[in-house]
Amino acid sequence: MYTIKQASALSGLSIDTIRFYEKAGLLPAINRLPNGHRSFLPTDIERMKIIICMKKAGFTLEELKSYLDIAETGNMHEHPDVMASMLRHKEKLKNQMVQIQTVLDFIDQKISEGSWLERKA
What we know:
The chain is mostly helical. It contains 5 helices and 2 strands. The chain has helices at residues 4-11, 15-23, 42-56, 61-73, 80-113, and strands at 31-32, 38-39. It has a two-stranded antiparallel sheet. Strand 1 and strand 2 form a beta hairpin. The N and C termini lie far apart (69 Å).
C-alpha cells in the first residue's frame, strides 16, 4: 500500500490531481487508514497511469470515466460507442504523428542544409 505522496511519485500525478480525480469519480473508492489518510493499492497506481495516457490521447474526463467504468465491469467490445470513440482517438493520434514527422523531416532537412532560409542572389 502507498501513501498519496508515494502514489504521486509512482504515477506522475500531483497530489492535488489525484484528489481531483478521486472526487471526479475517475478513481474508485480509495482505502483509508484509521487516521483517515488515503492508502493506494498497485491497481490504483495502474489506473492513474491509464488516466494519464488517455488524457494525453485527448480523452475528456467524461470519456475517461465511461471507459474506466466499463473496463472495470465488463468487456469494451460489448460497448460499440466506446469502441468507436477509442478508434476515433487512435486515428486522430496517427494523423498527429504524421504531422509531427513532417515537421521533423523539415527540421532535419534544414539542419543538413545549414540554413533556414534560402538566400536570394
